[in-house]
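Form 7-S
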Amino acid sequence: MHPSIPPGHAPEPSPPGAGWVFVNWTTRITPRSRARPGAAPALLSPLRWLLCAVVILCHGAGAAAQDKTDLWYEIAADAYLADSGDAVDRSTPRQALRGYMAAVERGDYAVAAQYLNLSRISEQDRAQVGPERARMLASVLRRQVWIDWSSMPARPDAMIERRPGANGPEPKPRRNLHLDTLEAGGTAYDLRLARFKPPDGAPVWLFTPQTVANVPPLYDAFGPRRYESLIPTALKHEVAGLWLWEWIALPLLALLVFGLGWAAHRAVHLMATRASRNWLKTGLTRSRLPVALIVMAGAAQAILSWVISFSSPVQAFLRPTLTIVMVWALGVTALRILDAILHKITLRFVGEIDDKRSFDERSFYTSIYALRRLIVLATVGIAATIVLLQLNLFDSIGMTLLASAGVLTVVLGIAGQAVLGNIIASLQIAFAKPVRIGDAVFFEGEWAYVEAIFYTFLRLRTWDNRRIVVPVTYFVSKPFENWSVTEARMMRVIDIWVDPMADVDALRASFCRMLDRDEEVIEPENAFVYATDQSEAGLKVSFYAMMPDPSTGWTAQSRLREQLMACLRDEHPEWIARSRVLDVGARDGSARTRAVGAG
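Output:
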């Protein structure tokens, strides 16, 4: 006993588990200390408080080191069924899940129930409800959850061991593992394993009480379908990862779905052939394949929802595949119907587009193409979002994408530079309109019409009906002549070399008479004729006339050239350009010029 504690009195014990210790320090006052009052207390008081602080900190650190609440959840001793005598190993997540699945495979649901935390079920019902919940949970796991055993922890604390030489934060023990999240009826349900410790036992891994409570709605949504009871028991054993009946049902399901798709494709084709309107016929013809895919995906979804349900490996493949096919087919069908409607609007208000159309009509047509591209971008974004939401991929890849945004930016910037550049340039053309659909352009020595503007390329139609496909970025980076940028009419010129003795006024008068007779030439009063050059070859005379559009102007220009050459040949053959040489006489030395042929 401490000398400062009176006999018969014991110190009051600290509360169990407390982090603070109260120590009663007393000092015996000796006669010598009384001789100098205040000296010893003044010296001992700081030391006393310093020692108290050290003892408190050391005891608090030891108490924190002994606190194990971050390694498990405290539960009552009767929260789960007692061990039935079989070897039930619940020490690690892998052993607990493996033991549960083994008991289910044997059909021993009483043992499988020992892996469930039944604390939310009344004690009198646990013996009956526990095995039933174990059976229902096994059915859901078989059909919807693909367990990756390699990632299932084999340590009691479920801590992920760090690889040698790896950097990063120190791994920590875990007491809760997420297996999967299933959505049923618009509600998300988690399936989890957790570590629980009874007051007088070792920690064990069990399915959480919330998981056990989620089993009934999940079983109603993903459990066996009504016709699965007709499957013989002999076909319900596993072969190569699948049930034997699945190897028989999958080919039959594929044949049935493909048959329905072919029938839908044929029906839409017949509807297209009997359609009275061209735009409706075009829309139905282009929608045959998407509609067939919608019917196939919808039929497969209906069979999986109401007729029969496959195991998790098949579901893991079919569920995302059917979702992607359904979303893609719906999007393509909507786009093609929209294309047909826009084409109908264009034909009604504009007609077949070419350079003869007005500025506003060609701008309207280009704006429709721009609207289509924006709708396509919006449709792709909405479809991608729906797929990610339906497959719950945002939770799994969202943070990964954010964490690796820098790397993805570099990779996408290098790999998709050309594609992204073409798309941006296409949108730039659609809004700025330096060139419109139907414009006549002169590009790299070719006279052509802009027939279509797509995301990554332009399609040009030459005057002789050839098609030139040009990347958008290449087109906008090169200079080109737009003969229809403000209006379609243009001045065409005909150059003819004639003899220097030709009368230009007479040629001008003949040209004016030709213009008066030609109906395709506009504004004949604004036509003019000039001698624009001369050389030893003769005199160059240029004939200018206004044409309504490039295509009409080309034919009119060629026709006028023929008429001018015929006029020279028939009325003034002496004005045809000739080459002259100097002829020197041999006898008298005189010189004279002599025409030797037409130039």
